[in-house]
Every structure is written in structure tokens, then in C-alpha cells.
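in:
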């Protein structure tokens, strides 16, 4: 029993000073808000989110709707941290990536802001003011259709995330696409003036794909003009609407077209063969017809 007495002796030698040094830091989060989450999981698989809305969210219906939209291969666990603050635990990077890259998402027309939680974060500490959108950049002149210009333009609209890999696949494009992280507390940008040094200025215009409800009075995402705070500050006769539905990119609609089997999209080079459509003679293609126009 020599070892036991050694331990006892060692413990007796520990003074208060020793105990107060060292220690172990546990990452349990503020107020234990990570309770319910498997702490062995990488918190990077746990984005947090909120909806851009003042009212109440039907939690059960929201969970069902998002799960049906996302169809995550490994499932998702959704927990309400507090009213309108949710933790989404995914179980595979593939699933979380598809969700984050597929934004914007919405439930009952209420936009979801969703962001990855970094290791040190707790759900309440994550800034949820940015939404990633694809923006179409129209009216760029030929010499300006470059990655460098797109990056500058993206950083003017918000924070540049990436540009569309298909931007330069074909010779002529009506517009180029850029993915931008947009601050929902600031008005959307409508257009931008650019030029090359010494040349004349010209305007490029922006159209936002799948943009959630935004206000035509103040240009901010998350409310319509009926609920704009400007209405309480400015007499009705002086209210202007500098923003409009024209900033919304037309919906991409799936349409059945008989010749599409043999039509290439985007002039992609390389291997190509007619899509196997199971002999029906039909295939789906996308077009730019917007049912609302
Ligand atoms: Zn407004």
C-alpha cells in the first residue's frame, strides 16, 4: 500500500497556492447554451441562425420546412436557443456546405440568416447580420468583364465571396454573377459608376437573385414598405421609393422544352453528349421567364 500513502502524502503537500494556479478551461458556453449539443462534434458543423422578422416563429413548422428544403444526407438537429435564435447541428461537412452555399433560405417568406459558429463562439455571440446572395452585374462593358473588376464590384455591394464559375464560359454574357455577403442593416446597392482612367463614367446595375423581401423606401432587407420606419419620420407626401422590384433578378424557372436535349447551356467546351432523358424526348432546362412579369 506504499503507493496510496505516497498519494496521500502528495495531496497533503498541495497548498492553496498550487490549487489556484493552473486549472482547466471548459468550453461550455455562456449560460450553458451549448447544452444539448454533442460537445465532441466540431462546432464548425453547428451554424446558428435567426429569421429577419419581429414576430414569433412556429418552431415545429420551421424545422419541418427547412429539413424538407435541405434534405441533409446525414440529418440535422435543430434547437431553439432563445426566441428567434436557433442552433443547427449537422453531421457532415457536405450537408452544411450545401446549406450555406445555397442561401438565401426562408420560412414563410421570412429570410433566414445563418452563419457558422467558430470554435470560441457561443450561439448568442455570433453576429447574424449578413446574408449571402448572388448578384447579377448588368451593363458591364467588354473591357471590364474581369475577375478583378468583379471583386471590386462585390466589395462595393457588400463583401465579395466568390464569382460564378460560369462567368467566362461563353463569349457574350448579358450579365456576370458575383456572390456577395450583404449587411442586412444597410440599404441594398442599386448601381455603381465606373470607368477606366481617363475614360467616361458609365453605370452598371445590380439585380439580386432570390432576394428576400426588401423595402422600396429604404432599401433594407427584412421588411416591406408598409412597415418602414421612415413612414413615422417623414410626411407621407414626401416619401419616395428609390428602390424597386427591378432590383430583383427574374426567377429561374424549370421549363419543359422539346429541343433542350440537344441545346448546350452556357457554351461549355469539352465532352458533351445529349442528355439521357429516358427516351421521353423531353428534358428540363432553365430559362429566364419570370411568372410575375
Ligand atoms: Zn424601409
Amino acid at each position: 500500500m506504499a503507493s496510496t500513502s505516497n498519494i496521500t502524502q502528495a495531496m497533503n503537500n498541495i497548498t492553496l497556492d498550487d490549487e489556484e494556479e493552473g486549472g482547466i478551461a471548459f468550453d461550455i458556453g455562456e449560460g450553458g447554451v451549448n447544452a444539448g449539443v454533442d460537445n465532441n462534434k466540431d462546432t464548425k458543423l453547428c451554424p446558428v441562425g435567426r429569421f429577419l422578422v419581429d414576430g414569433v416563429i412556429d418552431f415545429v413548422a420551421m424545422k419541418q420546412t427547412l429539413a424538407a428544403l435541405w434534405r441533409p444526407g446525414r440529418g440535422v438537429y435543430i434547437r431553439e436557443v432563445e426566441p428567434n435564435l436557433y442552433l443547427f447541428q449537422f453531421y457532415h461537412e457536405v450537408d452544411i456546405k450545401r446549406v450555406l452555399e445555397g442561401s438565401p433560405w426562408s420560412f414563410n417568406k421570412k429570410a433566414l440568416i445563418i452563419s457558422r459558429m467558430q470554435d470560441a463562439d457561443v450561439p448568442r455571440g455570433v453576429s447574424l447580420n449578413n446574408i449571402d446572395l448572388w448578384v447579377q452585374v448588368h451593363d458591364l462593358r467588354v473591357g471590364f468583364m474581369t475577375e478583378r473588376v468583379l471583386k471590386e464590384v462585390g466589395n462595393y455591394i457588400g463583401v465579395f465571396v466568390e464569382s460564378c464559375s460560369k462567368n467566362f464560359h461563353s463569349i457574350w454574357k448579358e450579365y456576370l454573377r458575383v456572390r456577395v455577403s450583404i449587411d442586412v442593416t444597410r440599404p441594398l446597392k442599386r448601381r455603381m459608376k465606373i470607368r477606366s482612367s481617363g475614360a467616361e463614367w458609365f453605370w452598371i446595375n445590380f439585380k439580386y437573385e432570390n432576394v428576400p423581401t426588401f423595402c422600396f423606401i429604404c432599401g433594407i432587407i427584412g421588411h416591406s414598405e408598409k412597415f418602414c420606419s421612415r413612414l413615422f419620420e417623414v410626411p407621407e407626401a414626401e416619401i419616395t421609393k428609390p428602390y424597386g422590384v427591378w432590383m430583383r433578378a427574374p426567377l429561374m424557372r424549370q421549363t419543359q422544352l422539346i429541343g433542350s436535349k440537344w441545346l448546350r447551356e452556357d457554351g461549355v467546351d469539352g465532352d458533351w453528349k445529349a442528355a439521357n432523358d429516358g427516351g421521353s424526348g423531353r428534358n428540363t432546362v432553365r430559362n429566364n421567364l419570370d411568372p410575375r412579369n
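note: The radius of gyration is 26 Å.
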